Amino acid sequence: MSVGIVLAGLGDIALSAHLPALARNSGVRVLGLVDPDEHRRELARALLPAPAFADLAEVLDDPEVRGVVLATPPWVTTGLIPLVTATGRFVLAEKPVATSVRAAGVLAELPEPQRGLVQVGLTYRHDPAMELLHDWITGGRLGSPSLVRAQIYDERRDPADPAHAGRIEGTLRHGMPVVHEGAHVFDWFGYLLGGPPDRVADAWAVATRPDLPAPNLCGARLEYPPSGGQGTPTVVLAEFGWLTDALPRCEISVLGDRGHALLDGQSFRLELSTAAGLEQVAFEPERTTRCFDRQLVRFVDLITGASTAPAPDLADGLAALELAERVAVLAGESPR
Ligand SMILES: NC(=O)c1ccc[n+]([C@@H]2O[C@H](COP(=O)([O-])OP(=O)(O)OC[C@H]3O[C@@H](n4cnc5c(N)ncnc54)[C@H](O)[C@@H]3O)[C@@H](O)[C@H]2O)c1
Questions:
Q1: Ligand 1 atom having least distance to the Cα of 80
Q2: What is the pLDDT of residue 76?
């Protein structure tokens, strides 16, 4: 029996990644496509013909609907999660689940049974490259990780695509890149380095143009506890940037006394350099396909009971948000 799923929010990531993943998964039936914007509904129906609705409430009465994928902006997602879980349905909610810790209060207070219905779209946690990097680090291939540099650059401003720039500037109004991208990146650090940082040592923010609604470049220095609790902390230098006409490379580098690992931020190709030489690993199919497929399989398993707990769960999503907000505040920005 396939599970009935509704996709709400038919924007960029829904049409480029969630909808194709839903269409590829034979265990899923799409019972509704929801967006207040008629044009987005038409675009989605052209990719996958399913009933379309302007408001999520219109489909939540259908007993065939077992789960909802929320690909909505974070300032909308926060209110939709409780709407879905109150009906006993499962929800896969895009990150970040809110734009501030205060706004996320309603989620932190969800009753325990409802929290168990929420999987958070920290999509790249599911990537085999992340698992392999974790194995390299915990298996001592680099020695103890001393320095992690994360350069997270995305959303290049393309002068030929002002609609995209306008949409990303709109998102910037709801918080600096660290709030949106940090959801993924702080989740990865927690997984790779065995838990949260001991402290955020410092943070900074810069706007490349005075008319931007918030700084579009920001970063922080964080200290994570040493592996095994002994030795020196791991220093993490994290930078986040959007909306310049050209962007630096997006990558994560992990350096230890015995080796250096490099994760390409777009493809998730991995390199490990040690005294023994260079190891290069690439996974198939390409990153978006494999991660959204794996994420959806986890969600279907949660719905069918094949797995009993969401992963990543709401606590993971809230922890990443809290850390991102700590960075933003230390950099001088008020939570939005
Ligand atoms: N997991 C990932 O890799 C990944 C990648 C990109 C974006 N995202 C996240 O996905 C979310 C959406 O991003 P996007 O780039 O697709 O944004 P977008 O602005 O392109 O799309 C959002 C869509 O939601 C619709 N919407 C607004 N209110 C709604 C409501 N009440 N009900 C239903 N639909 C509603 C809008 O009309 C719009 O079509 C963001 O939180 C973003 O951070 C995640």
A1: 31
A2: 98
Residue range(s) in the chain whose domain bears CATH number 3.30.360.10:
125-283+322-330
- Is residue 324 within 6 Å of ligand 1 at its C-beta? no
Say what the pLDDT of residue 188 is.
Answer: 95
Tokens at residue 241, please? 């940037």
Candidate from 16, 43, 58, 72 with most ligand 1 atoms within 8 A of CB, to mutate: 72
CATH T-level fold of 3-123+289-311: Rossmann fold (3.40.50)
Q: Is the CB–ligand 1 distance for residue 168 below 6 Å? A: no
Residues 196 and 5: their CA atoms lie apart, in Å, by 34
Q: What is the CATH number of domain 125-283+322-330?
A: 3.30.360.10
Q: What is the pLDDT of residue 336?
A: 78
Looking at residue 1, what is its pLDDT? 82
In the chain, beta strands by DSSP E? 3-8, 28-34, 52-53, 65-70, 90-94, 118-121, 145-153, 199-206, 217-224, 234-241, 251-256, 259-264, 270-274, 277-281
What residue spans in the chain does CATH classification 3.40.50.720 cover? 3-123+289-311
180's tokens: 């949106």
Low-confidence ranges of the chain (pLDDT < 70): none
The answer to whether the CB of 281 is under 6 A from ligand 1 is no
CA distance 299 to 119: 7
The pLDDT of residue 230: 80
The predicted structure's pLDDT at residue 264: 98
